[in-house]
Amino acid sequence: MSSRRDHPRPVGHSSSFLVARSWVGPVSAVVLLGACVTPAQPSPDDVSVKLQAVLDQAAAFEQSPGMVMAVQLGDSTPWIGVTGCEDEACTRKMTPEAKFRVGSITKNFVGTAILQQVDEGKVHLDDTLEKWLPGVFSHIDGNGITVRQLLNHTSGIESFTESLRWQTTVYESPTQPWNDPYELLKLADELRAANSQVLPPGSQFFYSNTNYVLLGMIAAKADGHPVTDWPVVLQERFFNRLALRDTRVPARGEVGLGSTNRGYVNFYNLFLDPATGRSACSPPFEPPCENKDVDFTEQDVSNAGAAGAIISTVGDLLTWTKAVTKGGLLSRELLRQQQSFFKGCPPAPAECPPGQIEVGLAMFRQPRYGFIGIRGEIHGFNGTIQYLPEKDLTVVVLSNRTALDDRDVGPVPESVAAALYPALKTRN
């Protein structure tokens, strides 16, 4: 859920100027046993060294204070590695149990809840927004927008994170609570009123955080809760059933992370225009942002709502990624639809540039090898959850900084695949 670069970038931002120092805790010594080792493959120790090198190099490239990564082949024992520290001063080494804000990875939970409700007959993918949330907007017609279009970002609805009021308020008053979802929807409605180039619903992909605020409301309503109670849906359907004990949606007014981990963002860099070399955040931001990191750990993520509020750990997200990608949460037909992807670049998919991420329902596919999952970013943190069907390989990576110079963790799973399978062919 990023403000200036909403695309398959989910909630978030990034920053910090510390080259991460490598540290492997006790859990890191556990290496993919059995499934990764055949007479023609490296030993477990060699695999561990390769994975740690990938993680260390990623942290150094991103200038992230610290990172945690989990890698699992099939149902073998996962490798969990850490690098760097929980804070820029490196007073605390990073640990496998560290908690992170996971940004738009939240969307994968919300979207999957909707798909479960489709399986149950409570919701239909072709239901209109107006059917579920009549009159929710003043300037956006919900009659022509479907649940499917909300899920795959083809609704044409403006993203509330593009609102200057949202951007400046989050920057200047990060712990201010928001009236989620209504205040966020009002921002999107204001953007529509001022927009002279509206995208017709279903015409093309446009990443919008507003889509998932709406889906959170629909999910809550479909399960018989007030539309503000979307966290209850996730708690009942996923957190409890999958024993995700370190995963939660913080309550409105709760600004702490619940962990000693810290998150950093360089706002000057976040809003930097490479073409002009100027940052759009100064002015109108007060005080003007400087080209340096800010500790942005404490924030009220009612500013993100169902588009990006979840806090979790690499272990919980490993459990989640396997469940959501490999089956068990959805019927075979709904899983097939969730994992049916299209190229998300306008106007003609045939003209897509190489490397274009493909879009599914609350899920994306990376083009190089075919990893499926979602990346998440929120002020101070960025992460990714990915699964490679061809190798039954699951990778989760979490970083405690917003992407600096757009160097996010998205490519790290591909680096893992290249390290484990040097002969693996690319899809493009």
TrEMBL record:
It comes from the Bacteria. It holds the Pfam family Beta-lactamase. InterPro entries: AmpC-like (IPR050491), Beta-lactam-related (IPR001466), Beta-lactam/transpept-like (IPR012338). Residues 53-406 form the Beta-lactamase-related domain. This is Beta-lactamase. It comes from Cystobacter fuscus. The lineage of its organism: Bacteria, Pseudomonadati, Myxococcota, Myxococcia, Myxococcales.
